[in-house]
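QA checklist item 7 of 12: single-chain prediction sanity check.
[x] sequence parsed
[x] length recorded as 206
[x] structure emitted
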Amino acid sequence: MKRIGVGLGLCLALSGAWAQQVWKCDVAGKVVFSDKPCPQAGQQLPGRNLQPNVVDAMKPEVVDAAMGRPAVPPQPLAAPAGNACPGEGEIRGMQTRGNSTTLGDAERQFLQDELRRARQCRNGQGRYTDADWDISREAQAAQTQLGERARQDARQRAEAMHSAADPDEGDRIARRRLAEERLARRQQQAQSQAPKGQNPTVPSPP
């Protein structure tokens, strides 16, 4: 009795699936079954006339083939972009320039930061391109120019590039700039409050 009930349930489920509205359409001289009204010639089939193979005929790939549409191959997933980094020889040159005693403090610190960022890149941090490191190389070369504004602008361009390529490095750059701004405000406040002739010293942030 239990098996009879299960079989009856399956029959009802199948008959319900096949009782949906289906149209038999004539498309370019070919018979196509669709679950929507025919755009041109065709007729609606009653539920009792539907056969199991009608379900297969309604599959998108079958309909496309019947209507002469080209098959669309599945698109492969795009491979993740690689990480372009300076080579070991270039990193050794960056280390030599970063230890130069002829540079100012800001310029020397920037070159040392670029050395650290290049090593981070070699360790897999960030997502850089060759064009990104071209910006870094231009900024490094600019640190020997006479104009202070030119050196500062070049550093800012390089830091903007690093912030976009490496979110962790971008956070570090933002925190350092914030600390520098706070230090500059404290120094300015101390100078305005100090008696004339004295040069107050404000400790650097930790």
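[x] summary fact logged: Helices lie at 2-18, 52-57, 60-66, 88-98, 105-122, 130-142, 148-165, 167-193.
[ ] second reviewer sign-off
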